[in-house]
Amino acid sequence: MHPAFSVIFLTTLIGVGQGLFLALYTGQVYALFQVLSAQGDHRFYAVGSVIVLAFLAAGLVASFFHLGRPERAWRAASQWRTSWLSREVIVLPLFMASVFMYGMAHYFGWNAPLFSLGETLQIDLIMLTGAIATFFCFALFICTGMIYACLRFLQEWHTPLTVSNFILLGGASGFALATAYAAYAAPELTGFYGKWTLIITLLAFASRLASLVRNHKLKPKSTLQSAIGVRHTKIAQKAQGFMGGSFNTREFFHGKSPSMLRSVKWIFIVLTFALPLVFLAWSLSINSASMLVLTFAVQYAGLIAERWFFFAQANHPQNLYYQAIS
Amino acid sequence: MTQLALVIDLNVCVGCHACVTNCKEWNTSGMAGPLSDFNPYGADPTGTFFNRVQTFEVGSFPNTETVHFPKSCLHCEEPPCVPVCPTGASYKRKEDGIVLVDYDKCIGCKYCSWACPYGVREIDEKQKVMKKCTLCVDRIYDQGLPEKERKPACVLACPTSARLFGDVHNPESEVSVAIRESNGYQLMPEWGTNPSNHYLPRRKTQLRIHDDQLVRADNPLKKERLLPKPDKNEPSLDDAISW
Question: How many contacts, defined by CB atoms under 8 Å, are there between A and B?
């Protein structure tokens, strides 16, 4: 497939936003259960929510560049019964709204207990809106992943690993941003976020590696024989019907050399996983905030390469019909 | 239930592109707007087409065969492009099974083209909406046309009648008979899309000659040569009857 930068930025940016929100809320849940004593002040979470919303909004803006008719985008909410894309279009604003409410609850300090779970757990509006936002956050991850995973012809994408990659890669980059943010705004939380970033990045590495191995072993279901229905081991295309380009030759081919594809793979493995893990461990040990910002920046750059590779690697069966110009 | 479809006979198609040309002409002139072209006479022409004719070579020299292969929307019975559409612009008509795009609802996200394994949807770069074969829905029901012209433009254009049009759910229709009797097949059956359009395979007419047909079994001399002729002066059966 041809990697479109609008979609690359959409998926990576909302992933960061979702991960950052999960980081903020995870810290609070830990504090609720009194596993974690450190807590940021209300300002920390309110500004954090603004950062989450900024990433989500930036992703939303990027997505509009993918549309031919952005003025009709509202129609995309209508087919939620069948289309994962439609579901994503619904869940993204719901997630943004619940993060907005979560930020507002923090900003205005709406922490009067509403009800209690069991003996000790006092649930206030902050925790409630956060729980709702967490639900929408995972729903959004699943929608985004399923947009690709549900296309059975694109065998490279048609696996549960696609969804787990989206969740874990988004989570890793969001927690990395939370670590950097905490280093400036709430230093006592840096260690907590940092450790989770290490864990999630390692999990993401395992999941992405598994999908790389799976895709490496993949055997295409469609062949030129089934594409034109002629049973012969040797079939060669002599003409594709036109001499110039067409939508079919532009949208479904990445147009780069196999060696470039291979090098992007190694670049994203190094930038998304190897370097951030080293940087993170190092900066946590020397307590350097600017180093943590660098960690996030490197990982985000890696994620752009990762997403580019994700699209470029997918081989659409229609390409069988466009092997030779003339 | 009706399911309109095309049946394309690869045994007859000569790859002349008349169907492509007539399809483009008809569908670029309709009220749905033109099928946009860019640089049609320039160095790098590109444009939107509903139908393409491709050519494949089967086998290796000298035992090769050229297969001309027209490709357009197959109007699948289980169209994978329809459920993925977020706006409902892409739909399959209940009454005749034609898969259509509502150009006024399409947002041009291209997701349906990703979901089509055959690559028969093309975006119109000017109108910015997805387009595809409509089976000439604007002419097959047109009461203003004589009945024999109420067929898709490609079918009417084909000089060798390689394209048949009809209801594949009606077992007595021309297309159903052709599929049944000439081994019509579907493209990429492995995906379960159940395409309505079928292709008829290349068929060869072969004359089988056995060795005993080359040798006269009743030859008394067991040798193939001119028969021995009697001398001119000898009486023959002719003499007895022709006086």
Answer: 173
Count of structural domains, chain A? 1
Helices (H), chain A: 5-32, 42-64, 84-107, 125-149, 160-185, 190-217, 224-228, 247-251, 258-268, 275-286, 289-313
When scoring A88, A147, A228, A319 by the number of chain B Cβ atoms within 10 A, the one with the most, hence best to mutate, is: A228
Hey, is the C-beta of A325 within 8 angstroms of any chain B C-beta?
no
A317 within a domain of the structure (yes/no): yes
Is residue A109, in this structure, part of any structural domain at all?
A: yes
B-facing residues of A in 188-247 (CB < 8 A) are 221-222, 224, 226-230, 232, 234-247
Minimum mean pLDDT among A18-22, A36-40, A137-141, B175-179: which range? A36-40
pTM for the structure as a whole: 0.90
| Contacts (Cβ under 8 Å, ≥6 apart) of A96 | A53, A56, A57, A60
Interface predicted TM-score of the whole assembly (ipTM), two decimals: 0.91
CATH of B4-200, one of 3.40.47.10, 3.20.20.70, 3.10.450.50, 3.30.70.20: 3.30.70.20
> Does the pLDDT of residue B213 top 90, yes or no?
no
Q: Is A221 helix (H, G, I), strand (E, B) or coil?
A: coil
pLDDT in tens, A233-285: 999 999 999 988 999 999 999 999 999 999 999 999 999 999 999 999 999 89
